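Still learning folds. Look over my entry:

…
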Amino acid sequence: MLVTFAKRCFLVLLGPFIFLFVAFIPALCGKRPGFRGWFWRTVSRSCSWLLWFLNVDVDISDEAREALRTDENSVIAVNHRSHLDGFSMLHVIPNEKWVTFGAKKELCEAALLKRGFDGAGLLKIDRSKGRDALSSLTEAVETMPKRRSPILFVEGTRATKPGLPPFKAGAVLIAQKTGRAVRPFVISHSDKLLPRGKFFPFKGTIHIDVLDQMFFDADEETTVCVARLRTAMAAAYDAQTGETTDLSL
């Protein structure tokens, strides 16, 4: 308990400086060659430090790490259980794999974060624009090197009930339009460690499954593809948690 308390006190003191560095360094150096690769590796290390300070471990198999290390030409589709999800993902993604996040336009345009997020190459998602927003995301993904993958939360927001709620079609549609595969990422137990309304997480372990790439032809019915993706991810999630996803929703 004393060690945990000391860690969290140190995090309260050090955390704001880490946040300011990560948020503002893209505004200063974002146009330098090779910056984004360096930046995301730095963010990954920062996430690892944060989880260590919080006494949160992440369980992932060696096979899953290797799949990520060699992953190319994919859209990463991940479920969303708590605010720990992004940190745990970046903690386990190897340096060889480049990623970027899709984030709500409101977050990307926040006064303190806008220049940093632009420099880091985050993808803006403007939900009010529907098809136009999808088109802009698709164009951005088409220009990415195969080594880099966008990370998209397929539920659209944090889940609040057992099992995986219905998925948004965005990740599948982008994969269909760009010819990329979908790489499913399944996170479990993060909501048990950090429930809604709690500031500091409980000590414990988050589990991550990385499934095989899934391929969806451009002429396949998108709703069928989304259902197939959800079925695969739900099987992994339910096996880890003991919950039952209602696939009829």
